[in-house]
Task: inverse folding
């Protein structure tokens, strides 16, 4: 299974046909990180991480350890698909999406309050 076909279940990345890039993507997504956040955590350019995720290149052994630490998976899982991989946290993903929606609504409400206060102060 290739990660470009969409996330089925996280444990499908342990299948023999999954690539290192597939498992890197699963680990990053399982940790709730987007490409930019994970690249920053690793001290890399996002393009470097993107290249790894599409199997254009591979991280060094020392970076594999850092990736495992940042994403909470074992280095062995990253390399082989065996061992401790990412959590299949669908409920957590749903909660994160709801939280993002609420933050967006709060920002919109805050901007509306500021506009109303500004209008009232000039009226």
Result:
């Amino acid at each position: 299974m290739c990660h470009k076909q969409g996330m089925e279940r996280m444990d499908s990345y342990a299948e023999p046909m999954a690539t290192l890039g597939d498992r890197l993507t699963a680990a990053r997504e399982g940790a709730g990180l987007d490409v930019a956040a994970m690249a920053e955590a690793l001290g890399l350019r996002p393009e470097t991480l993107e290249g790894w995720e599409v199997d254009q290149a591979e991280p060094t052994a020392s970076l594999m350890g850092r990736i495992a630490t940042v994403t909470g998976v074992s280095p062995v899982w990253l390399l082989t698909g065996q061992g401790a991989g990412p959590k299949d946290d669908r409920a957590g993903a749903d909660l994160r999406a709801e939280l993002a929606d609420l933050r967006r609504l709060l920002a919109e409400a805050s901007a509306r309050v500021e506009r109303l206060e500004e209008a009232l102060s000039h009226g």
The helical segments are 20-30, 35-42, 46-53, 61-71, 75-80, 90-122. Residues 90-122 form the longest helix (33 residues). The chain has six helices and no strands.
